[in-house]
Amino acid sequence: MSPLVLGALLGAAFGAGLLLVVRRLPFLRKPSAHERIGPYLRDIDGTDVFHGVVSSGSPFYAIVRLFGPSLRAGAIRLERILGGATSVRRRLARAGIDRSVEEFRIEQLLWGVAGFGVGLLIALVALSSGAGNPVGLLVLCGVLGVLGVLSRDTYLTSQVRRRERRLLAELPTVAELLALSVAAGEGPAAALDRVARSCRGELADELQRVLAETRAGDPLVRALDALADRSGLVALTRFADGLAVAIERGTPLADVLRAQAGDIREASRRELIESGARREVAMMVPVVFLVLPVTIAFAFYPGVVGIRLIAG
């Protein structure tokens, strides 16, 4: 490593440390209203925002707690820049992640710091080998940091899609089990309790949440309406609405559940056929652009070589 790069790294480290010390001086740091009132409300709200981001048993938990105020401030600034708190809260609920928007923004910030750290490592390696422009490498670090922030949002969307696929796969079986329990003489709440205890999966967890809300005092219809509101699936919303309507109006619940299970399986079959058709079209891309040119080259190349030999 050249003396210039080493001096730049030492100067940057010293400047960052000095900035942290100056920012934390008591006469320069103005405590927020949350920090002033928080100690008196700790018995009421004892939740820790960093438990949702990093486990308390993780070796990074102490580091996250050490930079907690900076992370909170960065999360607030990130929320002001990106916005969309309602969309994030909705997707967190659809993904089954019990976290707040602030916790998600802190995760995004950590992903961005990780991306910036990877870019910084690449820049140090490039500078130590004498290659690369410092300005371009600095831009690369910033781009990787932004990509890290956006990657967490993309990963949340993929989590929502995976959970919705699991819910759709579990819904017909759960509906048929509920129909069997109701046909055997059990009430709607007892049938939900039996199925929630017998099954494992995302939908069983949602049913357990519905039962927990009913035990807390909410009517079963209202708990089912809440399930329909927080789910982003049309089939699950129709399932919850059908249960609620059957309970309110006294219609035969077993017949409703069997009909819904049949509709869901038919919709899954249609979606599978449509997916197969889309994959068939997508398979034409490598065939047309890769296999076909190679086949034509193998077919015509010997003839071209033979013609050249005859002409020569």
From TrEMBL:
The lineage of its organism: Bacteria, Bacillati, Actinomycetota, Actinomycetes, Propionibacteriales. The keyword Transmembrane applies. Residues 176-298 form the Type II secretion system protein GspF domain. InterPro entries: T2SS_GspF_dom. Keywords: Cell membrane, Membrane, Transmembrane, Transmembrane helix. It is found in: Cell membrane. It comes from Kribbella sancticallisti. This is Type II secretion system F family protein. The chain crosses the membrane at residues 6-22, 109-129, 135-156, 287-311. It is a multi-pass membrane protein. PANTHER family: INTEGRAL MEMBRANE PROTEIN-RELATED (PTHR35007), PILUS ASSEMBLE PROTEIN (PTHR35007:SF2).
